[in-house]
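ugh ok fine here u go
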Amino acid sequence: MQSLEEQARRYATKAHAEAGQRRKYTDEPYIVHPAAVAELVRSVTDNEVMLAAAWLHDTVEDTPSTLNDITSHFGEKVAQLVEMLTDSHPPGTKNRAARKLAHFRHTAHASAEAQTIKLADIIDNTRSIIHFDARFARVYLIEKRVQISLLTAGHPDLWQQASTIIEQGIDQLTLAPHNIPTEWFTRQQQKYALASSATAANQ
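structure:
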């Protein structure tokens, strides 16, 4: 009989393939990303529910699969983790900073297990972003710096890995050939404070 993790691996592989998903910059089958996330999670735990959720973390967000599908195949505990990891920004939110902040708050309220998986997700997505898209990386890295500041319940080893990759990436962007001033990153990060204030004022 297949383990819960193996069932999740097979399900995610099929779901992402049938949705025609590929990795944005490398055009590899999308499943290489959940695979990498699962391996990072495995480096800090052998919890099979967490490993299954690591494989499935993008299925509801990026494929026709629903949380009900995940629950029926893998049980409530796995589905709860996937729900915590699914980006569901408020309808009508056009401002990127406000939209991202809503997702950051969503993951900030997630369980320690879900935050650990999210940290693994951030690590894998951040590893080579500068190499493929330095212009987008300068925005993305600040977003991830803000996000991990809220993921303090996640595993400390993965939190440190994520922080190191983010800060090294920002440092790299201040050097040639990018030469982005440190002040630019400070101003960019302030957008999230402004978005947070605006959101609070509208509630």
